[in-house]
Amino acid sequence: MSREERLLLAQTLGMASREATRASAAMDEAVVAFMGINATDGRACDVLDQYGDLTAGDLAEHLGLTTGAVTTLIDRLERVGMVERVRDASDRRRVIVRATEASREILAAIYTPYKQAWVALGSSFSDDEMRAARTFQRMATDLNLAFAGLLRDAEPSRTATNEERARAAAARIASFDFSTLRLRRGDGE
User: Fold this and answer.
1) 3.30.1540.10, 3.60.10.10, 3.30.365.10, 1.10.10.10: CATH of 1-124
2) From CA 46, how far away is CA 171, in angstroms rounded?
């Protein structure tokens, strides 16, 4: 493959990744609208579905939120019957956040066939192709999280102009040394 062809392939991979991100956001929006909750609350339900019971602090860490914000989030989800607070049996001072049976049923109804579709899609790939796709997804996740952190660090005031926002983003990203970024490549990394 020529250098130009490789560059074009890399560019189209980046475009496909952006399209996949938008499609994933559309799926997330449809799920939370169906559940009658907001996007952040939906991310919390997804984290609890993936990792199981968590403390409020652990949930806050997974979501990148403060513990105060997560307390309000848990209150909202508890009011609509999506989560419950349960005392830790081994340490009564600790409170565990748990998805309710209703929340698990809704997510299972949505995601069980969705996961089956992914398995069917993956079955058309060789083992090496699936490993490469998984590696790319992990690296893309790490890159997205790194960029999100950079933008959060450079967040301009609410009254900033578009030009000020563009300068702040450019300055913050330009100051980052991407050679220090650790991107997961495979199992155990």
Assistant:
1) 1.10.10.10
2) 34
* Token pair recorded at residue 91: 């340490």
Residue with tokens 């339900």: 45
pTM of the predicted model, to two decimals? Answer: 0.75
Four-residue CA torsion sign, 78, 76, 31, 49 = negative
User: Facing residues of 96 across strands?
Assistant: 55, 86
Show the tokens assigned to 168.
Answer: 């702040």
Question: What pLDDT score was predicted for residue 167?
Answer: 87
Measured at the CA of 64, the angle between CA 117 and CA 14, to 5 degrees, comes to 50
Nearest to 20 by CA among 131, 140, 184: 140
The predicted structure's pLDDT at residue 189: 46
Are 74 and 83 spatial neighbours (Cβ–Cβ below 8 Å)?
A: yes
**Which residues of the chain does CATH 1.10.10.10 include?**
1-124
- Confidence band, pLDDT 50/70/90 cuts, at residue 145: confident
The pLDDT tens digits for 37-78 are 999 999 999 999 999 999 999 999 999 899 999 999 999 999
118 half-sphere exposure, CB direction, 13 A CA radius: 8
